[in-house]
Amino acid sequence: MPAVVVVHGGAWSVPDKLAKAVVDGVKMAALDGFSVLERGGSALDAVEAAVRNLEDNVTFNAGHGAVLNADGDVELDAIIMDGRTLGSGAVSSVKNIPNPVSLARAVMEKTPHLLLTSRGANLFAESIGMATVPTDTLVTANEREKWEEHRSYVAGVTEDFNSKCAHDTVGAVAVDSAGNVACATSTGGIRNKMVGRVGDAAIIGCGGYADNSSGAVSCTGHGESILKVTLARLILSHMEQGKSAAESSQLALQYMGKRVRGAGGVIVVSPSGQWAAEFTTVRMSWAAVAKDNLWYGLESGERFEEALPH
C-alpha cells in the first residue's frame, strides 16, 4: 500500500509577497509528515506532525501567527480524526496552546468526548500537563498591525477573506502502508471574528473527516460556508459513489459555490493512495509526498514535481 501525505496552507488570495513562504512551508510540512510514515508511524502520527509544523510556522494562520478576534486575542480551533476507528478529537477557542492539533488528539485519546471548547479545553490541557505559553507569544507584530487595520467583523469577512489580506486554515491528510487514513485541520479563524466564534475547522464532517472505507479530507476556506454544506463529508459521499478524489472535490466545491456562494479548497486521500488538491479561491498552497516524489502548487491547475533525494 503506497503511503501518501498531502498538506494545505489555506485557500485564499495569497499575495505575491507571501507566495514563496507559503509554498516552502507546505513542502516542509509534507516532508515532515512523510518522514513519520517512513519511520513506521501511522497516518494519525503523520497528520499531527505535519500540522504541528504548520502551527509553528508564523506564515500560516494556526498556532504561532494566528489572526486575532474582535478583542485582539488569539482563539484557536483544531480537529484530528482516525479513519480506522472513526475516533475524533477537537478543540475550539483555545488561547495559550501553541499546538492545538495535539490537544485535539489528546481529547480523542484521553476523554470520552469529541470536542472541548474555551476554558474547558484549557483546563483539560492543564490536567494532562500539556505545555502552554503566554498568549501574546502566539501573536506576531505583522498580525497585530493587520488587526489594527481591520477593526470590524464585516471588514474581516468581506474585505479580508475575499480580497488579499486574509490568512486561512492549515491541514493534512495521510494514508499509511496499512491503508489507514487520517486527517487534521487547525486554524486561528477569521480576523476580527466575534469572540467565541467557531468555524468549520473544529467540526467533524465539515473541516475534516476520515474513514478507512472512503478516504480522508481536510478543508479550508470560508468556515460558515463549509459548515452549511458539511464539505468534508460531502466529498467522501461522492467518493463512496465511485468518483475519483479530484472529481469528488470539484463537485462538492462547485456545489458550495452555487448553493451558498462560498469559496474554499480541499485536500483528499483515499485508502488506495489516490489524492487530490482542489480549490475555488484565487490560490491555495499545497504539497503532497508519495514514494520518491514531492508535488506542490499555488495557482489553479498548477502542479510542480520534484524527485526526493535518496
Automatic annotation (TrEMBL):
Active site annotation, chain numbering: 169 (nucleophile)
EC number: 3.4.19.5, 3.5.1.1
Domain of life: Eukaryota
Span of the signal peptide: none
Entry's Gene Ontology molecular function annotations: asparaginase activity; beta-aspartyl-peptidase activity
SUPFAM superfamilies recorded: N-terminal nucleophile aminohydrolases (Ntn hydrolases)
Pfam families assigned: Asparaginase_2
Broad EC category: hydrolase
GO-annotated cellular components: cytoplasm
Keyword check for Cell wall biogenesis/degradation: no
GO biological process, any: proteolysis
Site entry: Cleavage: 168-169
Swiss-Prot/TrEMBL catalytic activity: Cleavage of a beta-linked Asp residue from the N-terminus of a polypeptide; L-asparagine + H2O = L-aspartate + NH4(+)
Keywords, comma-separated and alphabetical: Autocatalytic cleavage, Hydrolase, Protease
Binding site for substrate: 197-200, 220-223
Recorded family membership: Belongs to the Ntn-hydrolase family.
Listed name of the protein: Isoaspartyl peptidase/L-asparaginase
